[in-house]
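Translate sequence into structure tokens.
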Amino acid sequence: MTRSPAKRITRSLALGALALASLAAALPASAQTSTADPFKDKRYMSGHRDVLPPEVPEELQNVDALTRIRGVKRITACADPFAFPSTEMTEKATGYDVDLLQSIAKDEGWETFFIWVNTAGRGGMNRAFRTSIRKGICDVFLGLGTGGMEDVLGKSKLTLLAPAFGVSYVLATYDPTLKGQTLKDLAKNKVHTGATYFSPTDTFLTENGVEHETFPQSRRAIGAMAEGKVRAVLIPSTMMADAKRDFPDREMLMLESFEPKDMEWSSTWAIKATETQLREFLDARIAQYAANGRLKEILGTYGIPYVAPAKH
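Result follows.
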């Protein structure tokens, strides 16, 4: 009998992982938000990636992924537990990628199972892929972006799905008097704006003559705006979710008249390069959700605007 890759993990590791999973389930959600420090979290650093998925029947162990998923009525995903708003481990899995996968699974009558993977530790994404999806313990890896990952993906024999949606830099504000203003208006009126160190936001605002101040992180820029230190910010569109979470009593307005087309990237997932049927299935479902508005609805629950995937 041929053993599945997951079965080759040692018994002691499996038992330890199950204990970690139990501990994670017992901890309160407040300890697992995006404000937590993963490098001080014992559960995170000790390896959620080693949690085993449920047993697969012998007759489905050597078939393609989509056939196995349909056979067991369960799709298993790997994801980083501290990657809000894409994926996050609270009392239950959450995030827009989690919601999207669960919506697809619900339509198919499947369950979802999540394996949490440390993507920021030693070895980065290369180790994260190698110790999870490459081993075959999950079907898809969530929370990725297009561009700059070709070498890492190639080492683990993975491929990206078609982009689900675009992530762009947007001008946003808490000041209702700025609603409808353009980038030129902000420059002309010398509206003090926040940007991020060593990023396209700083360069872009400088090139367009916008008076601005730079911060170490987009969240710091948003915090400065909440305190009145700046009146607007230039941030990735996904950071609208952090603003909604950090300042729930404030209404963030996106200045939609501004479209920074030269600073876009797109959100996507990864699967094994050999799983062509699964790739075609997921690409079709996600495209369907983009067309019928379901994807826009999912992103909207996090305060994120839907942007079509970048074409360059």
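Note: Residues 276-292 form the longest helix (17 residues).
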